[in-house]
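Ticket #4471: structure export looks truncated?
Reporter: QA, pipeline team
Priority: medium

Steps to reproduce: submit the single chain below to the structure queue and open the exported record.
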Amino acid sequence: MSALTMGLVGCCSDDITKNPLVAEWDTPYQTPPFSKIELKHYEPAIDYAIEQNRAEIDAIINNPEAPTFENTIVAMAESGELLGRVTGVFYVLNNCVTSPEMQQIALNISPKLTALSNDVSLNPELFARVKAVYDQRESLELDQEDKMLLEDTYKGFARSGALLEGEAQELYRQYTTELSQLTLEFGQNALKATNAFALNITDEAKVAELPDFVKEGLAAEAAARGQEGWTVTLDAPSYGPFMTYSSQRDLKEELYKAYNTRAKGGEFDNMENIRKIANLRLQIANLLGYETYADYVLEDRMAENRTTVTNFLDELCNATMSYAKKDVATVTEFAHSLGFEGELMPWDWGYYNEKFKEAKYSINDEQIKPYLQLDNAINAVFMLAGKLYGLTFTPAPEIETYHPEATAYEVKDENGELMAILYLDFFPRESKRQGAWMTEFRGVKVKDGVEQRPLVQLVMNFTKPTANTPSLLTFDEFTTFLHEFGHGLHGILAKGKYESINGTSVKRDFVELPSQIMENWATEKEYLDLWAKHYQSGEAMPAELIEKLIAAKNYLAAYFNIRQLSFGMLDMAWHTITTPYEGDVLAFELEALKPTQVMPVIEGCAMGPAFTHIFSGGYATGYYGYKWAEVLAADAFSYFKEKGIFSKEVADKFRYEVLQKGGHEHPMDLYVKFRGHKPQTQALIDQMGLE
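Actual output as written to the record:
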């Protein structure tokens, strides 16, 4: 009995077709029937889908006809459709409504999926067919999409070990299997460690100074936990406002240290996982002929090599470090003017920089939040997409969602054609990982002449409504909404034949351009005037407040730039090691962060153990991409500023040259077609308005 057959014990072929993950979805737009899916359905469905995918690959290998673009490259692109559908549902839900049982399923299926991936990429007969087509590429009559699919397919094999032989191939299998398990475990540990800590406060005097919206949120959290008083968690909408508005140094120190030692030691320790992951990535890169993992990754990025990335990070760091130190000195001096004594510590920073911002610009989140009610913000973001791209968004209550807090919308273009189904999920919960992201249950493709439109999901962790107040966003939360919506537009407006090169399937350091350019509208008066109204009175946001918001746009820009660079530099440090690292993980991090250190180092604290972007997400050797894309976005938005922030001319060029084309061409070529020139780092430095 094969391992696959054993996995299907108790689920015969007749039964598996009734599994709601496998059966045809008789739902609006073939959306997932969430109410029918139970935990018991996932593993049998995934096992079955793996078996089907193997059969599809075998059919390509055993095709007696000579290899062609259609019978090999396109056939491969179209294979695995069922597996993609099933795993698409599983992994989206595992991030949003996870449970110990789902996390165990994730651990169970990880080696099976890695084995399938390796069996495909390391199959010599299959690679021989791919190579045969690739070798005759110059004589084939292929359009641009076809050429990119062929190139990506060949490179995908080469970069996944197809050129390895014998023992090296077996080591590749071993390393990639171990790596998939470790990265999964890393993410689970980070979530569990975040959920494991909560600070309950019962002394009303210690929360008296907090804005009402913060107190209400903490009281609601306490009540939900069956506690008295007010409870602070490590979730961003709880942790951030408390650190910003509370003067209770002892409590903030406790919270800061809890937040910055998540998954460092204890039951959910990730320190050893960091070392193992970095070393495995190095070993994989070495097997494939690269000196470092960064060399391996960046070969397939817009930046192309680690020298470019290192120089880019260093250039930004050198250009802004003195200004960042000045930012810290300015806030410290202000704190001293209020009676603070000694050195400003990291847990003091949020409180005093907010006080200084309020003193300098007479603005704070409490003033802004009443004008950023979530429902209004949703309509405003939809309105912006309508003005730029002619899109309309209609609530679709008939479409099932996976949680009562998630909502679904039909997205149509100016001609009334369906462009996508959009799922929105805004609030934190213990079953949901931190942060904000965009993903898809399925992407765009054309098969047998029929276009499949995407099912796009945007997930955030924003301020929850309370019994007395609707969800009112901070300015940062609204900016995050615009950011993720930009990713969403990349998926919604995608066009093309092949899902693997459509939408957000672009080089990682290009994928943040559509998201980061959207953030610019958050401080445009012409846009805010259209919708930002007080949730109680209905009065428009005062012009004076908008002016303050715009004036404060670059507040501490250098400091925040250096902070973002620190993430990119730590990422690059771990992925440019040339020999396996066996030393102290914390010491490695401290050394990597030295160039960006502008605040006191707190003994025992570490960023790495909860740095899911690079150790369990897809951003290994890619975190620099946020800053890289900021350069692109700064340069690109200047085009809108030149022609008008709602310019259809510019929006159409951005839509058709960037958003619609996805990964059909090299991103620099797409950018130049849109903008007319290559981007310059100085555009970002100028946008910061450093003084």
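Status: closed, not a bug. The export was complete when the record was re-opened. Leaving a note from the reviewer for reference: The CA atoms of residues 45 and 448 lie 25 Å apart.
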